[in-house]
Amino acid sequence: MQLHHHFAELGYEFFAHTQVQPLQEQRLVEFNKDLAQELGIDFSDEFVQRQLSGQETVDDSLSMVYAGHQFGGFTPRLGDGRGVLLGEVKDRQGVLHDLHVKGAGQTPFSRQADGRAVLRSTIREYLASEAMYGLGIPTTRALALYDSQHAVYRERPEIGAMLIRTAKTHIRFGHFEYFFAHKKYDELQQLIDYTLDTYFSHLKDESEPVKAMLIDVVQRTARMVAKWQSVGFQHGVMNTDNFSILGETIDYGPYGFMEDFNDRWICNHSDYEGRYAFHRQPGIGLWNLNCLLFAFSKHFTREELIEILKHYEPCLQSHYDELMAAKLGLSDVAQLEPMLEQLFVVLRKEQLDFTIFFRFLSRLEADKPELLMDEVVDRKAMADWLDYYWSVRNDGRDQQAVSEQMRRVNPKFVLRNYLAHQAIEAAESGDYLPFRELLKVLNSPFDEHLESDALAKRAPDWGRHLEVSCSS
Ligand code: AMP
Ligand code: MG
């Protein structure tokens, strides 16, 4: 494993040197073989394992400083309170990936907190990031999970754990906000140059490279949020410190994947006002970009910044339309809006499962509507929608091929909250089999995995209203 330390070269205004502090009796319980191979990381190498888990000093490992808008309010100094960036590694194509340990112990940015993560939240992040990867959504990834005999206190004593995750970068919107808010304009410029050189070098020959980079960030963010909406993913804590400058989904806490359709759904029980409710995510993405662009107020006029932001909405809308049309098997988006509007009314009223409905639709044949009718109370509303749907979908294409195509974009498996809950309970008692079985189907959620059919089903009654919160 060849560790690089490019970020560390930026200097002490950008981070504090920190080492991973191992947990008591920590154990490597899972590592991601495919990802490890891609990154040239050999887990059978004792020295590599020791480096990754904090038993060996890593020169230049560090915790980053950043700020962030949290639930609408600005916190001028946050930083990695429990995270350590070990360094960067190159994949086979020469692309850099950060290696970051979460739950690594206290850092200068921990404030009053313990710097640790519990097994529950670590498993939740592992599963969610790999599920998103399986769905083809830009995301950080899980490389390895360690559990321990280390007690970590939340609402109750829990098992301490660490996650090693990878990301194209850990630079967040909040990094730029930090330097701007503290009037550290030289460092802000240094960060901008670094980001441009390291991640947006293809834009360096543009007449205005920084502007081109920002437009790219706006569009990446728009596409990320469009993808979330298309699979029913709710992030739960869309603070600007949880938004990557590269448009990767990052920091999985009290997230959720929609089960019964409800576009007003609030997955995070600590989000009392529903700021990050499902239907608000597109607007919050824009709000966050606005915060990011404010940090560029010395670079551009207000009008220029507004022009940059204007790239958001059309990009999000067109990408979302494309994704939803593919989910429905339509050849174009002409009828999409009224069709979705009418469909969502039915789904909401009937409380149909978002994932199961679309997968079902990708198996449905025009002359067998009863298969769907048996699932609903208001048969007329469903029948009306189906008539409308088939009149648009049936446009002379080979419908079997359309169905097959639909199954490549409508997953059979999604990370249901009760499944994560079961995997966590088992892992807490030392049994990682449910976690592994779940991981397997989430990694390729469009495949049938007939032996794991049970994992594609709706939650039983006990699992329908489990609460998740910011506690992690
Ligand atoms: P999050 O909501 O998990 O993205 O965290 C927001 C901020 O709180 C980040 O700066 C984290 O590093 C910090 N933080 C969260 N949990 C802990 C913890 N247990 N110990 C120290 N810092 C934490
Ligand atoms: Mg965070």
TrEMBL record:
UniProt keyword Nucleotide-binding, yes or no: yes
Binding site for ATP: 79, 81-82, 102, 114-115, 165, 172, 251
Active site feature: 241
InterPro entries: SelO
Keyword line: ATP-binding, Magnesium, Manganese, Metal-binding, Nucleotide-binding, Nucleotidyltransferase, Transferase
A molecular function (GO) term: manganese ion binding
Substrates-to-products reaction catalysed: L-tyrosyl-[protein] + ATP = O-(5'-adenylyl)-L-tyrosyl-[protein] + diphosphate; L-tyrosyl-[protein] + UTP = O-(5'-uridylyl)-L-tyrosyl-[protein] + diphosphate; L-seryl-[protein] + ATP = 3-O-(5'-adenylyl)-L-seryl-[protein] + diphosphate; L-histidyl-[protein] + UTP = N(tele)-(5'-uridylyl)-L-histidyl-[protein] + diphosphate
Protein name, as recorded: Protein nucleotidyltransferase YdiU
HAMAP family in alphabetical order: SelO (MF_00692)
Similarity field: Belongs to the SELO family.
Residues the entry annotates as binding Mg(2+): 242, 251
Organism: Marinomonas aquimarina
Record carries keyword 4Fe-4S: no
Names of the cofactor(s): Mg(2+); Mn(2+)
EC number(s) stated in the UniProt entry for this protein: 2.7.7.-, 2.7.7.108
